[in-house]
Every structure is written in structure tokens, then in C-alpha cells.
Amino acid sequence: MPPCPKYSTTTIGYTTTVGYTTTVSGGGGGSVYGYVKILLSNDSLINASQIKIGDLIMAYNFNTRTLVPSVVTAVYVRNVTDKYTFNGLLNVDADEVMLINGRWQRAYTAKVGDTLFNPITGQYLNITSITIKYYGSAHHVYDIIATPFNNYIADGFLIDGVIT
Q1: Residue 76 to residue 145: CA distance in whole angstroms
Q2: SS (H, E, C) the chain
């Protein structure tokens, strides 16, 4: 597997604290929809909208090729008007960073025939369908940031927790 460099990131817009999350306005993206299931360190699943600071989520360590716990350090709620659905399972916005063909890439770059990484099985799965939906109004998505490994497992696929 090739090394997976992180994207440099820029925070867009302004932030205001709301409960345990931060709402980001004025742009952004790169997040999962609230009903996407996130794998916790105790092997249970929770909706992305229920994740809070301090939760232990499962991440992937590329050096050891194992699943490891990471602590959620931030949750950003973003407003987007698009939804990309991969293989009828994973729902993200266009800017979400995923391991596509062994490299960190934005969701909008994926095409049928590319592969997504499932860190639970260690396998790359073929993308057999991509459904793109554009909404007339904004929908909430969730960007989860964790340490020491800033990636997480969403509906069985590896997602990078960059701040966009």
C-alpha cells in the first residue's frame, strides 16, 4: 500500500461553539451525513451525529496495518447541498477525503471502477455505483477530528478526518 499523505487544510468561514460541536458557516465540506455509522473502539456503531468530544473511535494505523482507538477531539457540523452515495452505502459530501485507489482523494474525484478501502477486512472494494444528489437547501454533515490517528471508519470505509 502506498504512503497516504495528508492534505493541507484551511478553515473556511467563521466558527461558533454550539454544545459539544462547532458549527462552521461560509463554506467547507468534507464530511459524512449524520446517519452514517461510525465504528467505536468497543466495536459498536453510532451515528455520526451522535459522536462527541472524548468518544473513542476506531482508526487505522498504516504503519502496523491494524485498527487502533483514537480520541475524538472535535466535531464540526457543516452545511452542504450535495450528497455522494457509494455502492448504496456510504453517504458523504463532495469534498470528503477517502482512501480511493490507495490514495487520499476527495469524493468528487471517484468513479465507478475505483476502489475504497475497508480497514476492517483490509480489502479494497470496487466502487460499483455512485449516486450524486444536489439539494436546494443545506443539509448537516459531520466532520470528525481525532488523535493520535486522524481517520475513522464510516459505514465500513476509511475516512480521513482533515479539517476543510
Answers
A1: 8
A2: CCCCCCCCCCCCCEEEEECCEEEEECCCCCCEECCCEEEECCCCEEEHHHCCCCCEEEEEECCCCEEEEEEEEEEEEEEEEEEEEECCCEEECCCCEEEECCEEEEHHHCCCCCEEEECCCCEEEECCCEEEEEEEEEEEEEEEEEECCCEEEECCEEEECCCC
For the record, the C-alpha cell of 40 comes out as 467505536
As a whole number of angstroms, the distance between CA 51 and CA 57 comes to 9
Residue 5 banded pLDDT, cuts 50, 70, 90: very low
Asked if 158 and 151 count as a contact pair (C-beta separation under 8 A), the reply is yes
What's this model's pTM, rounded to 2 decimal places? 0.80
Tens of pLDDT, residue by residue over 89-120, are 999 999 999 999 999 999 999 999 999 999 99
Kindly tell me if the per-residue pLDDT of 8 is higher than 90. no
Grid cell in block for residue 158: 476509511
Alpha carbons within 13 A on the beta-carbon side of 22: 18
Which CATH number is 17-160 given? 2.170.16.10
